[in-house]
Amino acid sequence: MRIMRPTLVLLQSQCLLCVFVSVCVLGVLGSLPHALPWHVSCPVRCVCQIKPWFSPDSVYHEAPTVDCNDLLLTKLLLPIPPNTHTLRLQSNLLSELDTAVLHGLPNLTDLDLSQNRFSRVWTITQSSSLPSLLSLHLEENRLSHLPEASFSSMPALQELFLSHNNLHSIAPGAFTGLDFLLRLHINNNRLTTVDPRWFRALPRLEVLMLGGNPVEALPEQAFLALKSLRSLVLGGMGLRGLAEKALEGLDGLESLSFYDNLLTKVPTQALKRVQGLKFLDLNKNRIKLIETGDFQGMIHLKELGLNNMEELVSIEKAALENLPELTKLEITNNPRLSYIHPQAFLQLSKLESLMLNSNSLSALHQHVMLSLPSLQEVSLHSNPLRCDCLFHWAAEDASHPHNEKGTQTARLVRFIQPQATLCSEPPELRARRVREVSSREMSASCLPMIPTSSLPSYVGVKEGGKLVLHCRALAEPQPELYWVTPSGLRLGPAPSHASKGSAAPAPCLTASERFNYTSTSSISPGQVQDDIPCKSSKLYQLLPEGTLEINKVTHSEAGLYTCVAENVLGADTRSVTVGVHSRETKRKRGLGANLKGFPLFRADARLEVREVGEHYAILSWQSGRNLPLTRLSWHAIYSKFHTPTYTTRILAGTQSFNLTHLQAETFYRVCLHLGISEGTKHVSRRRRESIKPQCVSFRTKDASEPQPSLQLSPELTSTAVTLLLFAIIFLLLAVQGGDSEHDKEAEKLYNTFLREINSPKAVIINQKTEGSSKQQKQKEKLLLHQVC
Ligand SMILES: *[C@@H]1O[C@H](CO)[C@@H](O)[C@H](O)[C@H]1NC(C)=O
Ligand SMILES: *[C@@H]1O[C@H](CO)[C@@H](O)[C@H](O)[C@H]1NC(C)=O
Ligand SMILES: *[C@@H]1O[C@H](CO)[C@@H](O)[C@H](O)[C@H]1NC(C)=O
């Protein structure tokens, strides 16, 4: 068991990637000869045997061993046989050694003093020369300081274990004389700095375990002297970032672990200095995004771990590009990771194993599969997978006629744990195994979906700080994303399904490049050209994949932000409330206080009829705020029949709507219901109630009449439009409620005058039941798109 110790230490340090060093040792252990008797006079209570032993460079020895472990010894038992090779004194109560005794052991190669009470290393090394000692175990003692030349009496030492002590200072020349040291474990101590001078005496060092020390920053060129170092473990240190030259000089480094630190970005610049790196462990850090070019130039990288990151939300386009040796990629157990860009992995010609289980992924785009020619296995279980067209490649019979050989390749990829790789959407396929669903069962449509894990419903930010909101959505075809600010400003590309009226609808802002938002841009209101002046002169930045950044946040940026993802099939929206904390007041105030700073917008919006045709009418409105739950309802006004009321949701940031499928020569009443959001529980009830529906009435044009009957001026307010209409038709009478939703009284009155018209045949949407089944919602989205 004791032989396996180095392996266990490695595992403890979570450096799974560097276990490769020890694996061969373990392999041999299976076929080991057992201990042989050793006929010497053994100290009482100890066991003396010939036992198998491996040197640090993995050479097998039959070692005369004295085992005095776990005996609560306070002093050494005698006599120790002179030919002792291994002396085990683990788990005793020793605080000093009779060094004269050790002096009589010229062949001692392995001395284990771990789990004792040594507080000074001098009491061991003083005056005793141990010319054969290769391995010294001093872990779990009480050492607090290493003086100069601490180990100079052990010139052959190859392994030195000092982990789990109280070391808080190490003299610059503490390791002087250890010319042959291969492994140094000083992890889990109380060191707060790393001194480059320590390592000058260690030209042959191959493995350095430094993790578990509270070092917040590494100095530049900390490891410059370690030309032979192959494996470096910097786990659990509290590193927040890495200086550009922190890793300079590590020319032989193959394995590097940053497990459990506080890195917020991949330390790309520092990693560029370790060109030979093969194994990289970035697990359990605070990285939010894996960004384009993060692993640039790491052409020898074979295995990469990006697991257990609480904050990781997205793997961006070309995040891993041109890594010709990469064979294994692990991105698992990241609870917020919901998005992997279809082109996230480029030129990874040797990638064989892709581990993506236990994230929040709804799908893995087919492009990802097609871009990995050597892929053999993929692990996707424990994700909320969407079994629709995004996942067609994985379906049981994905060999569709229109799918080329690429899909076939994807089919050959082995699923790890296929029995646990289940659909969670759509409802009718829930809990089915992905690989057993046929492509016929998978819906052909791919509406955008913004995963709930990527955007929280509330984000607090300090005044003057930087606000970053990540919105991502997968769909086929790829969706466009835009944001709507609290003041109703739309940030993003102009609607692609733009008007025919306006020849070139000036795009408000393009997402394909970084931009500055200034007051010259206008809100793109869909079909109607409008020029609502953009009051804000604030600097917003929209990054390519849908991230909104606001620098130097002030109270006027507080409020509701809505992300909209849209493709030709439909749209999805998600809103987040941003609260701005004052600088002086720390966190004492509750949410209410944060929202006190919400700018006060007009609570109403003027609904106008912009254009009326035989079968359609274009309505537009202006509102100085973001109202993501806005609905439009309309009904025909007939004499006798009870006419149905139709409702449609309006996408956030939209300021006009083309009502289609209307009956000709018919009166309609349309109301705009301004809504904020289900998610905005932070907004007071009173404020919500204060938003009243805006209504307007009009009459569609006469069927096939050549002359234009009614030209409505866009300048007219709703009341004026209504008055004008009824004045023309009835020559008198204009009773207009204006802001009552039902308006029953007025309706009754008009009904007596109106002639009968058949009820409309074309039903658009009847969406009175909010929060109905998902399918209905999808239909709503689909229809919504047709209409607008
Ligand atoms: C030490 O090992 C050498 C070579 O194996 C051997 O010749 C010598 O006798 C050993 N020393 C003692 C004190 O046993
Ligand atoms: C954004 O605006 C700032 C200052 O107004 C300017 O320095 C910068 O160049 C602008 N960036 C772009 C991409 O236009
Ligand atoms: C509104 O919809 C109708 C019917 O689909 C269409 O004929 C008309 O061109 C649309 N108007 C605009 C401005 O898009």
From TrEMBL:
Residues 1-30 form the signal peptide. PROSITE patterns: IG_LIKE, LRR. One of its GO terms (cellular component) is plasma membrane. Residues 448-577 form the Ig-like domain. InterPro entries: Ig-like_dom (IPR007110), Ig-like_dom_sf (IPR036179), Ig-like_fold (IPR013783), Ig_sub (IPR003599), Ig_sub2 (IPR003598), Leu-rich_rpt (IPR001611), Leu-rich_rpt_typical-subtyp (IPR003591), LRR_dom_sf (IPR032675). Keywords: Disulfide bond, Glycoprotein, Leucine-rich repeat, Repeat, Signal. PANTHER family: ANTIGEN BSP, PUTATIVE-RELATED, CHAOPTIN-RELATED. This is Ig-like domain-containing protein.
